[in-house]
Amino acid sequence: MPKIGMPILRRKALISAAIAEIGEAGSLEVTVSQIARRAGVSSALAHHYFGSKDQIFLAAMRQVLETFRIAVRERLRLADTPEERIRAIIDASFEQSQFEREIVAAWLTFYVRALQSRPERRLLQIYAKRLNSNLLFNLRQLFDDRTAEKVAQGLASMIDGFYIRHALQDQAPDREGTRDMVKDYLNLWLERTART
């Protein structure tokens, strides 16, 4: 008889193993057997829990996005002003847990998979809408609607773009430097608005 809670632990182990394998390979070119071996379970058990490699990857990205959502929520809880809330979102986007090599590789794979797979595309759209909504809610308290939309698009593009750069380049700035560049973009808009 299986121990109570083992299915949850095995699923978590498979998700972590999938992220680690994707990070090591730099793509989704890994097998269920590799993922299962790293998780310490059989391939048959991995198929039993998820059905396919694609489903394991989808569950892994849901976990990455949930970790990000929690980081945003925790930082927003400590922020009082619209500007502080925007900075909190930027900080959460470049938090260490989101910037580990395996997670960055998973994000890059996620972007590519979203072009080919409806479930991944839907999940990416949810992430993008949530990020945009969080940014816009606060930016509209600082700028007119048109400017707020432009700044939100710029911030989201920089956040996503830096993940791609980190995945593809050895010369990309470090995590703190990247985060500071995104904040500098926000500062430019705030200064520009203050002058007018």
Describe this protein with a few key phrases.
single chain; 196 residues; mainly alpha; Tetracycline Repressor, domain 2; 9 helices; 79% helix
CATH topology: Tetracycline Repressor, domain 2
Q: What about the largest sheet?
A: none
Uncertain stretches? none
Strand content: under 5%
Number of domains: 1
Helix content: over 70%
Helix segment tally: 9
- Structural class of the helix and strand makeup? mainly alpha
The CATH class: Mainly Alpha
What is the secondary structure topology, with strand pairs?
Elements: H1 6-25, H2 32-39, H3 43-50, H4 53-77, H5 82-93, H6 101-114, H7 118-139, H8 145-168, H9 175-195
Helix pairs in contact: 1-2, 1-4, 1-6, 2-3, 4-5, 4-7, 5-7, 6-7, 6-8, 7-8, 8-9
What does this structure look like?
By secondary structure, the chain is mainly α. It has a single domain, classed as Tetracycline Repressor, domain 2, CATH 1.10.357. Helices cover 79% and strands 0% of the residues. The chain contains 9 helices and no strands. α2 packs across α3.
